[in-house]
Design brief:
D-Maltodextrin-Binding Protein, domain 2; 3-stranded mixed beta sheet; 346 residues; 40% helix; alpha/beta; 19% strand; 8-stranded mixed beta sheet; elongated; 2 domains
């Protein structure tokens, strides 16, 4: 009897050890938006410590993330831009948008003293259209009394890669400037009228930091981590709003569709920051594709459930706005609809 008990205990120990070893071997891959990269990096470190599951995420821009998911070379893509209906129709399977957090795209700059500036929608559009090319332009001076704006050329910096941050920024400009909408429009990649290109949010922030007179658009944390100033932007209600977790959350106080595919720019909220947006993880609804195992699919779903649940604790410390209760509810419903070979994935 003792020998049997010892054999049973040994077998159970080996079974648990094998299970843990198999779990540690699981590695998920994703690629896409740099907008949420600092948050994802922290989330994935925590998740690995808790579960043993490694997540390898490459910040290559939203356009790259969409392409890699469509080519089925990653478990998930990251995007700050809603995948268009035309692109969705090209996908080999139904694509879901799972919201992870909200962030602010800020207008950052490098001028002597780096004072806190105010900017209006038309001034931002005209700078990026090339109509305003000096920091001491009359319109900027009038809007910022008491600030000694220099006689310095404005060096416009923008993204050179396919970018969800560009999609949010250009979506905003297309709403507030008819001239921008007609001449440039919106999208992840644009035919820019002026400017120097840089890859990713880190590239834009770095170029603005190094180039006197520069102006750029980046996610809030990239401006903060590079000690760059950022402007208060006038919203639709006429208020100049600082980009904060609170003002971004207010921008998202809208009726959210079940698919969560909605733009938050140019908000109606009186104190909402007007250049705000969701960032999403995109996945195939049916996870049985390529050579993916059911276990790989299940681990992908578990990761996303953790990110919209416990993982939300990492959002505010990194200056992202966490999902609202309603956004979490709709994200969970989307994940509950995920299948493997047509059957519910549980």
């Amino acid at each position: 009897m003792r020998i049997y008990s010892r054999l049973l205990i040994t077998a159970l120990v080996l079974l648990v050890a094998c299970s843990l070893t198999a779990q540690r071997r699981v590695e998920l891959t994703g690629a896409g938006a740099t907008f949420p990269y600092p948050l994802y990096n922290r989330m994935f470190e925590d998740y690995h410590q808790q579960t043993g599951v490694r997540v390898n995420y490459q910040g290559i821009g939203s356009g790259g993330g969409i392409r890699q998911l469509f080519s089925k070379t990653v478990d998930f893509g990251g995007t700050d831009a809603i995948v268009s209906e035309d692109r969705l129709a090209e996908a080999d399977g139904e694509i879901l948008h799972i919201p992870i957090c909200l962030g602010a795209v800020v207008v950052t700059y490098n001028i002597p003293g780096n004072p806190r500036l105010k900017m209006t929608p038309d001034i931002i559009a005209d700078i990026y259209l090339g109509n305003i090319d000096k920091w001491n332009d009359d319109r900027l001076v009038e809007l910022n009394p008491g600030i000694n704006l220099p006689n310095l050329n404005i060096a416009v910096v923008r993204r050179s890669d396919g970018s969800g941050t560009t999609s949010i920024f250009s979506n905003y400009l297309s709403k507030v400037s008819s001239d921008w909408k007609e001449r440039v429009g919106e999208g992840t990649s644009l035919n820019w009228p002026v400017g120097l290109g840089a890859r990713g949010n880190p590239g834009v922030a770095g170029m603005v930091q190094q180039l006197p007179g520069a102006i750029g658009y980046v996610e809030l944390i990239y401006a903060m981590s590079n000690n760059l100033p950022y402007a208060d932007v006038q919203n639709r209600s006429g208020n100049f709003v600082e980009p904060t977790i609170g003002s971004v959350s207010l921008a998202a106080d809208i009726d959210l569709p079940d698919d969560t595919m909605v733009s938050l720019t140019d908000t109606d909220a009186a104190q909402g920051y007007p250049i705000s947006g969701f960032t999403w993880i995109i996945i195939y609804r049916d996870q049985d594709y390529g050579r993916r195992s059911r276990n790989q699919a299940l681990e992908t779903k578990k990761l996303l459930e953790w990110m919209i649940g416990e993982g939300q604790k990492h959002a505010e410390p990194l200056h992202y706005a966490p999902l609202s209760t309603e956004a979490v509810r709709k994200a969970r419903a989307l994940l509950d609809s995920v299948t493997y070979n047509g059957q519910p994935l549980k």
